[in-house]
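Action item from last week, closing it out:
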Amino acid sequence: MSNISRRQFIKTGAAALAGISIAPNIILGKSHGHVSPSDKINILGVGIGGRGASVLNGLSSQNIIGLCDVDWNYSGHVFKKYPKAKRFRDYRIMFDKLGKSADAVMIATPDHTHAIIASEAIMMGKNVYCEKPLTHTVYESRLLTKLAEKYNVATQMGNQGSSAPGVRKVCEWIWNGEIGEVTKVEAFTDRPIWPQGLNRPEISQAVPESLDWDLFLGPAQYRDYNSCYTPWNWRGWWDFGTGALGDMACHILHPVFKGLKLTYPTKVQGSSTLLLSDCAPSAQMVKYTFPARDNMPKVAMPEVEVIWYDGGLKPMRPEGLPAHKDLNDHGGGVIFHGTKDTLICGSYGINPWLLSGRNPDSPKVLREIQESHEMDFVRACKERPSNRIQTASSFSEAGPFNEMVVMGVLAIRLQSLNQELLWDGPNMTFTNIDPNATVRSVIKDGFTIKNGHPTFDKTWTEPVNAQAFAQELIKHTYRDGWKLPDMPK
């Protein structure tokens, strides 16, 4: 074995070790918790300055062989932490240079570039960890779901609460019939904690030397640089992010999606503060309607409404809630209104409790994850596809779930139609938008005070066909030079 690496041996001569692509420690005679260097997987990181730095911390026991970020000033502290990793600005060059050596790719770029980077990684046969929201659009979510299935790679979305005890407890109580049938759920977040409801800046600024602005834009349509967009405030701008809904619903609504076994919504409505053409509103409400699902042995799954609030809005306090009890737990909360009891939990599904005060000892229903969200992904990467145990938020679940999340963005941006929108999930289309209907939004609010009196002189976009606008939100037209792969059949 002196002239062949253990990785090469496994690829060429250890196919008989069924169920293992990278041999676990027990085969090497290693004690539990001791990992030799040859057990580690090779990881590439794309988008490392912000949330990506935290994810890499969770993966730092592995080999971080390449790091990519469009802003080398913002990401400089991460480059210093992993001095052996090769540095890149363009992920495509990194994939060309290091793709053959990599086992997995971690993606924590702005929302609008998740799908194009993840799809390329998957088609290279790489395992993918992608931060939430999984994608910017419904179509992109469907694409990653199908690509992950086709290429049979390990995947994980970065909604870390899905690996935590709270989500498991919520499912245990619901599936055991502890709260009865659920026909209404309310959820909220205290975000945004970045500016939203902003007019598009009218002046351009010089691009910092440390930033490749064209690569930051990626598939988004060109606009001049302004410091209000990056490195962090991009979440509030429609071209790059999905606002407070996309940022936090992947955490807060996950126990709802999983616990109630939701599929595609059939109806959606949105409402918000002033809707601007470029920036998410300061506060939003979205109501989803989901059809009845197959009943479980101990509880029925009837039609259910899921109502989302953000920007400081909250549901009305349920009857019987203790006085002064704050429903905000770690940035948000969920209220499951059952026919027998009311279940309440915080963001990430944390700290579930019943309004009745009961604490039922219901049967365990989900795999208990012993390691972190990130390390459970590593575990899945090391298993052969034929024997792999899926992660808590693999794309097979995270993809359909993320479709639900970004549906809320569609509802908000189409609210001027003044109607409940009917959704055909399998075909990714609205079925009740009049072919002649148009929509428009505000470019800038034009607020001034004249002689002591507040005045609005709003500048509006030109009316556009609502069906065409909706289709563009469902599946973006990418900028020249950027293209998604075809949808697998």
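Closing note: The chain has two domains: 6-162+370-394, 164-367+402-420.
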